[in-house]
Design the sequence.
C-alpha cells in the first residue's frame, strides 16, 4: 500500500481524522498478493454479468437477497472480486464469517494435504464412525480456543443448528435434574410419542427483544429482530425480556444506563419467576448484532449470570457473531469478568465450524439424543486448526484492537463532522456500528459505498455494521474513510 499517497488523499478532508498523520502499525504482516485498493470496472454493482447470472439462478433458486455474484478465485485478503471485474474492500465479510482473508495461502497449502483430501471425499457420520484423528483434531482446533471453564464440545453444522441443539441440551439437563437422575418412567417414554407431558414437558427458553438466534424452528421462537424472519411460522409461547437500549457515548450516560440495565435485570427475574411455562434456559448475545448492534455493559451480564444461578436457569451465550476475536478477545464474554462461566457458549461464523461448548453435566444422560447424521464437518475443524494457528502466530487479536481503535476514532470524527448523519457510534474491537437518520438513508449509504468499492452491511432499523476480517489493518480502514467521507459529502448536499 502506498501509505504516503493515501495519507495525502485523506488529509484533504479537514476536520476528519486529525490523528491520521500516521496510520498505526500492527504486528500483522501484509497479506501476500493482496490488492492495493478497490478497483471499479462497471458503473453499477451488480454489473451486467452479475445481473445475467441472477436471471439464470432465478429459474432454479431465489436470488433476491444477493448483492452481486462473487469471483472467489480472484478475491484476495480483505478484497472480494465480482464476476464483472470489480474489486471491493470487504468490511462485511460474508456476514462476519471470514477470519483470515480470502485465499489465505496457509489455508490453500493445508487444503492440498492428504489429510484434507481424505476428510473431503470420505465425509464421516461423526457420531457413529468418527475418523481415527478426530480426538486429536478436536484438541488442536476447538479446544485451543475453548472458553475458560468449559471443557466439552458439541459440533454442529451452522449457527442455527448450534443454538437449536443447545436448547435441547438445556431441556434435557433441566429434566434430568428434576427427576434426580432417575431413569425415564414408562409414562414419559409413551407420552413423548404423542407430544404430550410428562415425556414432552412444557418448558421455555427466555430470550431478548431484538435478539437473533437463528431460523430453525426452535431458534426462531427466540429470534425477535425482524418480523420478516418469523411471519407465517408457528412459534412456542416463550418469554422475551427487554435488552438494554443504552445511550451513547457510554461514558457520558453512566448513571442513566445503569438505571436502564437495572430495569432490564428486574424484568428478566420477574419473567423467570412468573412466566406460565417454566424457564429452563436463557439465551443472550454479547452484542445484539442482527437486531442493531445493541450493547450492554459487563454489569448487565454479571447480573444475568447471578439471576440464572439463583433460579437454576441455564445461561447460553450466543457467540455466533461475536466469537473468534472480533471484539479483541477470542470470546466477547471474556470482557465481562463473570463470577462463573456461562453454562453453554454457541459459535459459528468466524470459527468456520459450528457447535457449542459446555461441561459434562450438559451431556445427555443417554447417547443418540443430541445427534444428527453429520455432527459437524471434519474439514471445517481442519480449517479452524489453521485459523487458530494464524491468529496466534500473527498476533491477530492485537491487530483487531489496534485497527478497532483506529476505526472508532475515525468514525467519531465523522460523527462530529456530520452529526446530522452519523450518530450512536458503538463498538468493541472491530465489531463496530453506527446509525443513520433512517433505514432508507442507511440503505442508500451502503449502496453508495458499494459503488465506491466498499462492501458493508446493515442491521437493525437504521444501523451500518462493520465486520472487518481479523487481518484488516488501519490502512484498509483509511481507504474506507476516504470513500465514506465522499459519500457523506454527497448526502449533506442533498439534505
Sequence:
Amino acid at each position: 500500500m502506498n501509505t504516503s499517497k493515501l495519507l495525502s488523499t485523506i488529509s484533504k478532508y479537514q476536520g476528519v481524522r486529525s490523528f491520521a498523520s500516521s496510520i498505526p502499525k500492527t504486528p500483522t504482516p501484509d497479506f501476500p498478493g493482496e490488492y492495493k485498493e478497490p478497483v471499479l470496472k462497471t458503473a453499477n454493482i451488480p454489473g451486467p454479468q452479475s445481473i445475467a447470472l441472477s436471471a439464470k439462478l432465478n429459474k432454479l433458486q431465489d436470488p433476491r437477497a444477493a448483492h452481486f455474484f462473487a469471483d472467489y478465485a480472484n478475491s484476495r485478503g480483505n478484497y472480494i472480486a465480482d464476476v464483472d471485474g470489480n474489486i471491493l474492500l470487504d468490511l462485511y465479510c460474508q456476514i462476519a464469517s471470514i477470519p483470515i482473508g480470502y485465499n489465505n495461502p496457509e489455508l490453500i497449502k493445508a487444503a492440498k494435504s492428504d489429510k484434507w483430501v481424505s476428510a473431503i471425499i470420505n465425509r464421516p457420520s461423526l457420531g457413529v464412525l468418527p475418523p481415527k484423528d478426530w480426538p486429536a483434531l478436536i484438541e488442536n482446533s476447538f479446544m485451543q480456543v475453548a472458553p475458560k471453564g468449559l471443557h466439552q464440545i458439541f459440533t454442529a453444522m451452522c449457527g442455527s443448528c448450534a443454538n437449536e441443539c443447545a436448547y435441547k441440551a438445556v431441556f434435557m439437563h433441566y429434566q434430568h435434574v428434576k427427576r434426580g437422575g432417575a431413569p425415564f418412567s414408562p409414562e414419559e417414554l409413551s407420552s413423548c410419542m404423542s407430544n404430550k407431558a410428562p415425556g414432552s414437558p412444557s418448558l421455555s427458553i427466555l430470550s431478548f427483544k431484538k435478539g437473533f438466534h437463528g431460523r430453525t424452528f426452535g431458534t426462531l421462537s427466540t429470534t425477535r429482530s425482524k418480523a420478516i424472519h418469523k411471519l407465517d411460522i408457528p412459534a412456542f409461547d416463550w418469554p422475551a425480556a427487554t435488552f438494554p437500549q443504552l445511550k451513547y457515548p457510554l461514558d457520558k450516560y453512566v448513571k442513566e444506563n445503569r438505571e436502564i440495565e437495572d430495569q432490564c435485570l428486574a424484568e428478566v427475574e420477574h419473567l423467570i419467576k412468573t412466566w406460565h411455562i417454566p424457564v429452563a434456559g436463557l439465551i443472550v448475545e454479547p452484542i445484539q448484532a442482527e437486531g442493531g448492534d445493541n450493547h450492554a455493559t459487563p454489569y448487565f451480564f454479571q447480573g444475568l449470570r447471578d439471576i440464572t444461578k439463583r433460579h437454576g436457569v441455564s445461561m447460553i451465550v450466543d457467540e455466533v457473531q461475536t466469537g473468534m476475536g472480533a471484539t479483541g478477545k477470542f470470546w466477547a464474554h471474556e470482557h465481562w469478568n463473570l463470577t462463573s462461566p456461562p453454562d453453554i457458549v454457541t459459535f459459528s461464523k468466524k470459527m468456520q465450524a459450528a457447535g457449542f461448548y459446555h461441561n459434562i453435566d450438559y451431556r445427555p444422560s443417554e447417547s443418540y439424543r443430541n445427534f444428527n447424521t453429520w455432527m459437524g464437518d471434519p474439514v471445517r475443524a481442519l480449517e479452524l486448526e489453521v485459523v487458530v494457528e494464524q491468529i496466534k502466530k500473527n498476533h491477530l487479536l492485537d491487530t483487531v484492537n489496534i485497527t478497532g481503535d483506529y476505526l472508532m476514532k475515525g468514525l467519531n470524527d465523522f460523527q462530529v463532522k456530520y452529526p446530522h448523519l452519523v450518530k450512536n457510534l458503538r463498538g468493541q474491537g472491530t465489531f463496530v456500528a453506527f446509525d443513520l437518520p433512517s433505514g432508507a438513508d442507511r440503505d442508500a449509504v451502503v449502496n453508495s459505498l458499494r459503488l465506491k468499492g466498499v462492501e458493508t452491511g446493515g442491521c437493525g432499523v437504521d444501523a451500518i455494521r462493520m465486520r472487518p476480517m481479523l487481518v484488516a489493518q488501519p490502512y484498509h480502514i483509511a481507504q474506507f474513510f476516504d470513500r465514506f467521507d465522499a459519500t457523506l459529502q454527497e448526502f449533506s448536499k442533498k439534505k
About this structure: DSSP finds 16 helices and 14 strands in the chain.
